[in-house]
Design a protein that fits this description.
77% helix; 13 helices; 338 residues; two-stranded antiparallel ribbon; mainly alpha; 2 strands; 2% strand; single chain
Length: 338
């Protein structure tokens, strides 16, 4: 592998870390909102199960990620490098403000923008759907944007289904509910580690194939392990502001609310992974909290915060695409003058 490929691989791992930072609330927000544990213990729990999810990951989502761009082999490293950097810069800027933006959405925009400049419009894999399985930019964005709506609807339905239990609940019945919250939080972390982890695994595999280090699109175990640990580390060391946003600023609920939101998120993410759909797990978890709040007391949902976060999600793709195009053009110019 040449120096550019190594640099791109480092950026891909950096992207996995940023995914972890933006994913910090996914398995921990409901635990904290339900007062089931401390912030530190929730982070340790999330780290362990994100690693497990990454190691258990299949390859359907990873293979979908490779379909986003179709640049020549000698331009893959530059495309991934500049597209990944664009995503990291945008995610860092948003995360510092405590906004749980989607690094997954940002990556699609960053890669598309970089590929369009480096290889032309035909280098962008616009894609669509193969049955229910997405591929390319359009298919991936459709999955990323529709999955939060599904997560919110499922969470609202689960919460309404739990309403009879809530009416008969006593203090002694809260402990089993919190135990179920731990279970669903673990499932979310596993699903998150597998779906988000596969995004970086797919890019790393594409780099290795383009560099001739491996001969086919199959994720090596060392890549799986490295991405799993890197992503899990991101969830553990960053994201306190984001956890607070998701766990309390959207809607401050009780244990049953956390249980419904987590169960809906786990079901949505695992179903998406089975279809090979790269989804934004952070948006699914956040929308689940909103869905639960709307199902109970719509006026208690902090709608200004919801609109602020949704606005950030809307501008993510064009912002990262523009930044990716600028970095891609600068990188291509540097290579020409070498």
């Amino acid at each position: 592998m040449n120096l550019l490929s190594v640099a791109a691989l480092i950026v891909v791992l950096g992207f996995a870390f940023m995914l972890g930072v933006s994913d910090a609330p996914n398995a921990s927000a409901s635990l904290i909102a339900a007062r089931a544990t401390s912030y530190r213990d929730a982070m340790a729990f999330a780290f362990a199960f994100h690693v497990l999810g990454g190691l258990l990951a299949g390859q359907a989502v990873a293979l979908t990620m490779i379909t986003i761009v179709h640049v020549p082999a000698n331009r893959v490293a530059l495309t991934y490098l500049t597209g990944g950097l664009a995503t990291i810069v945008f995610t860092l800027a948003a995360t510092r403000r405590g906004i749980p933006v989607s690094a997954s959405i940002g990556l699609v925009g960053g890669l598309a923008g970089a590929a369009a400049v480096i290889g032309g419009w035909r280098a962008v894999g616009w894609g669509g759907l193969h049955g229910l399985s997405p591929y390319g930019v359009i298919g991936t964005l459709a999955a990323v944007l529709l999955s939060p709506l599904l997560g919110a609807v499922v969470a609202a339905a689960f919460r309404r289904g739990l309403q009879p239990i809530a009416r008969r609940a006593t203090r002694s019945s809260i402990h089993p509910v919190r135990g179920l919250i731990w279970l669903t939080a673990g499932l979310v972390a596993i699903a998150d580690g597998s779906n988000d982890g596969q995004k970086a695994m797919g890019l790393a595999t594409g780099l290795l194939v383009a560099a001739g280090a491996i001969s086919r699109d199959q994720v090596p175990f060392l890549v799986t392990a490295a991405v799993a640990v890197t992503l899990a580390t991101g969830t553990a060391v960053g994201g306190r502001k984001i956890v607070r946003t998701v766990s309390s600023r959207f809607y401050r609920g009780g244990p049953l609310d956390g249980l419904a939101a987590q169960a809906a998120a786990a079901l949505t993410i695992l179903g998406s992974s089975a279809l090979g759909a790269p989804v934004s797990t952070s948006t699914i978890v956040a929308s689940g909290m909103v869905g639960v709040g709307a199902a109970r007391r719509r006026r208690h949902v902090r709608w200004p915060t919801v609109f602020r976060v949704v606005s950030a999600w809307v501008i993510t793709v064009p912002a990262c695409a523009i930044l990716g195009a600028l970095l891609g053009a600068a990188g291509a110019a540097l290579l020409v003058h070498r």
